[in-house]
Amino acid sequence: MDKVVGTAEAAVADIGDGASIAVGGFGLCGIPSVLIGALYAQGAGDLRVVSNNCGVDRWGLGILLHAGRISRATGSYVGENKEFARQYLSGEIELELTPQGTLAERLRAGGCGIPAFFTPAGVGTQVAEGGLPWRYDAAGAVVVASPRKEVRVFDGVEYVLEESITTDYALVRAARGDRHGNLVFDKSARNFNPLAAMAGRITVAEVEELVEPGELDPDEVHLPGVFVQRVVVLSAAQAAEKQIEKTTITAPAAWGTVRD
User: Fold this and answer.
1) pTM of the predicted protein model
2) What are the residues facing 141 on neighbouring strands?
3) Helices then strands (H, E): number in the chain?
4) Ordered DSSP codes for 202-223
5) What is the C-alpha end-to-end distance of the chain, expressed in Å?
6) Contacts of 77 (CB under 8 A, 6+ apart)
7) What number of other Cβ atoms are within 10 A of residue 41's Cβ?
8) Which burial class, exposed, middle or buried, applies to 28 when counting CB atoms under 10 A from its CB (0-12, 13-18, 19+)?
9) Residue 140 has pLDDT above 90, yes or no
């Protein structure tokens, strides 16, 4: 039952070319940056990534993206990453955009063994009707587009059928974890992490603090260890290294109103 792996490098060593990977995080919040770095060093390519977004240029999944190691991405947001936009518009990467809540439910459903579900999100748009550009060619023509999806009426309301997502691997980050893989996340850093973990057949969690089994109150566990196969314990320096996506400054009250 001890799922602790000695290093991040060992934890991702068997991820091969063409693997599908669900990755937790939202922007740069709660991303498994150490595991992503180890995967970059490991060298696997042609990766099919499922994540809310691909980080920013040269940080988070942006590291793998910039190296040309991601061939397909499924997510809900591509902003803040100019290299992602460049690769998508030039036909170097395939992108499946999906509504954010739908993406979350597709991951959760995959982890629960539910093959598909109906949702009102996207009805009456290209999400349901098809035609969203998934891949362009170098000349800017659409060569792969999203298919039309089944729409049914329940109690007079239209719903679109969405298929669940499962992946070969999942990479997530947690604030605390035990040797059995039970995880606790820190506030908004929870975001997509539990959902990504559920969807992966082999889930690797990097944890900022490791505790012994029994030290976590069962009521505070956000993700049961049944969904986690490998645990990597971060050093203090690794746990502290967290990038800020956007820095905002609130003007002090003393600044007041600008006057002539």
Assistant:
1) 0.93
2) none
3) 8, 14
4) EEEEEEEEEE-TT-S-GGG-SB
5) 70
6) 52, 53, 100
7) 11
8) buried
9) yes
**Angle at alpha carbon of residue 159, lines to 153 and 160, rounded to 5°:** 125
Per-residue confidence (pLDDT) for residue 260, from 0 to 100: 42
Q: For residue 130, give the amino acid letter.
A: G
Residue 58 pLDDT grade (very low, low, confident, very high; cuts 50, 70, 90): confident
Whole-angstrom CA distances from 166 to 187, 226, 232 are 25, 16, 22
Contact 167, 193 (CB under 8 A): no
Q: Are strands 151-154 and 157-163 parallel, antiparallel or unpaired?
A: antiparallel
CA distance 234 to 92: 34
Please tell me the distance from the alpha carbon of residue 57 to that of residue 75, in angstroms, as a whole number: 16
Q: How far is CA 130 from the centre of its chain?
A: 24
Pairing of strands 200-211, 230-233: parallel
Reduced to 3 states (helix: H, G, I; strand: E, B; else coil), residue 86 is helix
CA distances from 114 to 73, 96, 97, 198 (A): 22, 20, 21, 12
- Rounded Cα–Cα distance for residues 42 and 126 (Å): 38
Q: Which of 42, 43, 23 is nearest to 33 (CA)?
A: 23
Residues 59-114 have pLDDT tens digits of 899 999 999 999 999 999 887 789 999 999 999 999 999 999 999 999 999 999 99
Q: Is 47 helix (H, G, I), strand (E, B) or coil?
A: strand
E strands, 120-199, in order? 133-136, 142-145, 151-154, 157-163, 167-178, 183-184
Q: What is the pLDDT of residue 252?
A: 66
